[in-house]
Design a protein that fits this description.
By secondary structure, the protein is α/β, with parallel strands linked by helices. The protein folds into 3 domains: about 5-50 and about 180-240, no CATH class; about 65-175 and about 240-300, Rossmann fold, CATH 3.40.50.300; about 300-375, Roll (Ubiquitin-like (UB roll)). The protein is about 30% helix and about 20% strand.
């Protein structure tokens, strides 16, 4: 029996099993078995090439700019139109179900950041199983920094289809990697050290670990409410954690209350913190495109750092764009490959500095709109 048949058999077994407390263990184990088989299948197909590649992200587009955003949606929801309204690109728009056969890149310039936006072929149900271009679409999505889920105002239910496909492709949206640590030992069996209350049972955890070939070691759990699915994710080791924005398109065709109803269904009534997660737009009529640009920028978590040459003037015109939480070292790496090696110290003005002109090392964390001077070993500066 081949791997796909084995997966099918286990899936059927899960479908036949009623989900309750008594079957939790059994089902958890079956899910882990499926995850392992899928990984095996993926490795067989992609072999060594999976790890080469580097910057080339498939469909013959290269990553460019400070971050890459992908448009994910079913055909005809308006992805190409949206790309054209966000960027300088001219992607083909069609009123019939025309699938863009490749990735079309555009560049969005916003607040000094250069954001690459990729229009991808429409994803269809079953993409993760290899239907259509799904596999390649998902592999491009995996290398992105942000996913825009594009929905047609008349088909908001596509959201669950898309989320399922992305999940099957190993993409976890708006989640953090679970906080667990595995310390391997050579003997002594498996011990579980949960430092917070968790959902998965210890017996199941141990059994799943054995399934992944771990017979000895200590599992330290600091993830509140850890589930068996999260544990499987970590053991699989090929999950990608990405932020997302849900874009509801074609709102020019409906009234405001129609949009509000969909919004409350998707983000709930509590929209205090959710303003950047759901944006209703019309790509065609240019409604809320600026709001979407701001949401993209916010969700990418950028900060701006202004460089000041030693003894010179600060360049406030062209900030360096880095990820929130980035350090002086990240700035060095962005400027030049040898920069960190020649680094002597940095001087920082702004929110991250204890006082103006604080002397800092490579591991200093920067904040938005900091001013930074880098002093190199040779005495020159950048
Ligand atoms: N009314 C309306 N039509 C739109 C909007 N955006 C796209 N369309 C139309 O929807 C159809 C499909 O658009 P397209 O960008 O090719 O969709 P894609 O297949 O997702 O790339 C075209 O006829 C577009 O003109 C919008 O905001 N409002
Ligand atoms: Mg298109």
């Amino acid at each position: 029996m081949g791997i796909p048949e084995k997966i099918k058999e286990i899936q059927d077994q899960i479908h036949r099993t009623q989900i309750n407390k008594a079957t939790e263990f059994h089902i958890g184990l079956l899910k882990a078995k499926i995850a392992r088989l899928k990984r095996e299948m993926h490795e067989n197909v992609h072999g060594r090439t999976m790890h080469s590649g580097g910057e080339n992200i498939g469909f013959d587009v290269r990553k460019a700019g400070d971050a890459t955003v992908v448009l994910i949606g079913l055909p005809s929801v308006g992805k190409s139109t949206l790309l054209n309204s966000l960027t300088n690109a001219r992607s083909r728009v069609a009123s019939y179900q025309f699938t863009t056969l490749t990735a079309v890149p555009g560049m969005l310039h916003y607040r000094g950041a250069k954001i690459q936006v990729l229009d991808l072929p429409g994803i269809i149900e079953g993409a993760s199983g290899g239907k259509g271009f799904g596999k390649r679409v998902l592999s491009v999505a995996r290398s992105a920094d942000l996913v825009l889920i594009v929905l047609d105002v008349f088909q908001p239910h596509h959201l669950s289809v898309l989320k399922k496909e992305l999940a099957e492709g190993g993409i976890r949206l708006d989640e953090q990697p679970p906080n667990i640590l595995i310390e391997k030992t050579s003997t002594g069996g498996i011990s579980v050290n949960a430092q917070v209350p968790i959902k998965a049972s210890e017996r199941l955890i141990k059994e799943i670990m054995r399934l992944y070939g771990l017979h000895n070691g200590r599992l330290i759990i600091r993830e509140p409410n850890l589930t068996d699915d999260q544990l499987i994710d970590v053991l699989n080791g090929n999950r990608i954690y990405l932020p997302s924005v849900i874009v509801l398109n074609k709102i020019d065709l409906v009234n405001a209350s129609f949009v509000q109803e969909i919004k409350s269904k998707i983000v709930g009534n509590n929209n205090n913190n959710n303003n950047n997660y759901f944006i209703a737009v019309s790509a065609d009529s240019g409604i809320n495109i600026d709001v979407l640009k701001e949401a993209i920028y916010q969700r990418l978590g950028f900060i701006r750092v202004y460089m000041r040459p030693k003894g010179g003037e600060t360049d406030f015109k062209e900030p360096l764009i880095i990820k929130n939480g980035a350090t002086v070292q990240d700035v060095c790496n962005k400027i030049h490959r040898n920069m960190a090696r020649n680094f002597r110290y940095g001087l920082v003005w702004g929110k991250s500095a204890k006082f103006a002109g604080q002397k800092v090392g490579l591991d200093h964390k920067l904040a938005d709109e900091d001013v930074l001077t880098i002093v190199k070993v040779s005495g020159t500066s950048t």
